[in-house]
TrEMBL record, chains A, B:
Pfam families: 4HBT_3, 4HBT_3C. Residues 130-155 are annotated as: Disordered. Gene3D superfamilies: Acyl-CoA thioesterase, double hotdog domain. PANTHER family: CHROMOSOME 23, WHOLE GENOME SHOTGUN SEQUENCE, THIOESTERASE DOMAIN-CONTAINING PROTEIN. This is TesB-like acyl-CoA thioesterase 3. Residues 30-116 form the Acyl-CoA thioesterase-like N-terminal HotDog domain. SUPFAM superfamilies: Thioesterase/thiol ester dehydrase-isomerase. Residues 163-286 form the Acyl-CoA thioesterase-like C-terminal domain. InterPro entries: ACOT8-like_C (IPR049450), Acyl-CoA_hotdog (IPR042171), HotDog_dom_sf (IPR029069), Sec_Metab_Biosynth-Assoc (IPR052389), TesB_ACOT8-like_N (IPR049449).
Length: 292, 292
């Protein structure tokens, strides 16, 4: 595995944006972060976050909300940002992601509203009752192994245990290892609990930072699978709070769904760093579009 | 107590907006929903939600995010809305609230991004592991009694128990009764737990609806008080998911803070209706601005 640093990685390259006018950025949505044909929502959020980080005077996303409007496709895209307010410690901005139809008309993919700050400038006090999730050691968790060319993931079955189906291109970008207690769905035996947990890293070894946390909160399989639902669970809205700059090393992610009602469910994610700090909290509202 | 209905209440009158141009609404921020001099953020959210409900083709807020930019003051205000996307079952819009400085210049107070739908059209399936909070009966909880003129609340001490200090105008609009286990702060003995729970209603008896839930999620005292913090806890961002149309009758609200770090904390609120349905979930990111 190549050793890469922040700024020099698949994630950084694929979320890069180029300013083409004040507040306007050209981007290319990579095929490397797709699940079947859908571009991962967390990847899109990170890309938008990078554009806003350039447009706003503060470096770090503190709270970012995205409403997903239409399905993004790999290829060219444009991010337009708006600086709403800049203050001494916080600044707020909005952003829109658009792509173009065959006839050249614009199609809006997502809309983002975010407040940025400087995590390094915050006092170091912590008072928390939150506890890291209980996840078995990395080597006892289940993952997908990237193919050599990283074009797509090949399901892996270590120790004869079941591999995770449905892996696609994004599997080659992630070093994801799921708690076996939350992958019953992969062998037709979902637990019935709305839980998904695992270890998260980037496959090329890039360490986490506030921007990559925006990807992390939406990169695990949906909890709906463990609830026994089959189908799609498209995100309507996702809000992520980045609470601390993550330490280098692997992250742990725990996602919980408590309430499925009227064809909607919430997914609450927590991300913990290698120093047992709660570094991000997110909640999304998703629709359940079932197949029989 | 006067018997009022939805559409005919203090809440409806004070959140009313008048369309002055396509997508633009005049409003008057009422003095009746202030805490000391600050206009309550939940009240503002409901007012913005009403404007968006007029601008969008779907009636009910499903997920609403607000970023609070500057402190609103009672008086005239203008809401400008933008319809971002209208679909068959969901529509998405943005809104901004502005007021005017003495020199006539505009000051933006808050920015909102929201997706609306039709709660009555959703299937009636529910699968939930969420349980209503354990709150003592209404008559054993502690509240504030409105003054006859409703201009401000007079702290009440039933049975000799402590009243809740800091009550101001909004106390006259709400029928709020807090779980005694979460009001230790009022007598200088905070529990140290980031919890606040209670019964919630509108003082004039108006039943809850999806719009009033936007007020409900931000109407209790801050959990920071029970953590022993003294000062202000201004909301940076609040996101509310409305999950079901509430049944008539009193609501129960439970708010939890798990993580205080770097001068920020989250407040997670759940709202339950009289039929034991989880009708709203919210999370806000707030700053702690302490006084010694």
């Amino acid at each position: 595995m190549a050793s890469v640093t922040v700024g020099n990685s698949e994630f950084d390259r694929d979320t890069a944006v180029t300013r083409s006018a004040p507040g306007v950025y050209d981007a290319h949505l990579s095929e490397g972060w797709t699940i079947i044909n859908a571009v991962n929502g967390g990847y899109l959020l990170a890309l938008m976050g990078r554009a806003l980080g350039d447009a706003l005077p503060h470096p770090d996303p503190l709270t970012v909300t995205a409403h997903y409007l239409t399905a993004s496709v790999p290829g060219p895209a444009v991010v337009r940002t708006e600086v709403i307010r800049t203050g001494r410690t916080l600044s707020t901005g909005a952003a829109t992601l658009v792509q173009f139809a065959d006839d050249g008309s614009e199609v809006e993919r997502m809309r983002v509203l975010a407040t940025y700050g400087d995590l390094a400038a915050l006092p170091d006090d912590v008072r928390t009752t939150a506890k890291p999730p209980a996840i078995p050691p990395y080597e006892h968790c289940l993952g997908t192994s990237p193919t050599p060319e990283r074009g797509g993931g090949t399901p892996m079955a270590p120790d004869g245990r079941p591999a995770i189906p449905g892996s696609t291109a994004i599997a080659g970008r992630l070093d994801l290892r799921l708690d076996p207690a939350t992958v019953g769905w992969a062998v037709g035996a979902p637990s019935g609990k709305g839980e998904m947990r695992g270890w998260f890293g980037l496959a090329d070894g890039r360490d986490p930072d506030p921007l990559s946390l925006l990807l992390t909160v939406d990169a695990l399989p949906p909890t709906a699978f463990e609830l026994g639902l089959r189908g799609w669970v498209p995100t309507v809205e996702l809000t992520c709070h980045v609470r601390h700059r993550p330490a280098p090393g692997p992250l742990r992610v725990a996602i919980t769904t408590r309430n499925l009602a009227g064809g909607f469910l919430e997914e609450d994610a927590e991300v913990w760093d290698s120093e047992d700090r709660l570094v991000a909290q997110s909640r999304q509202l998703a629709r359940t579009i079932l197949v029989q």
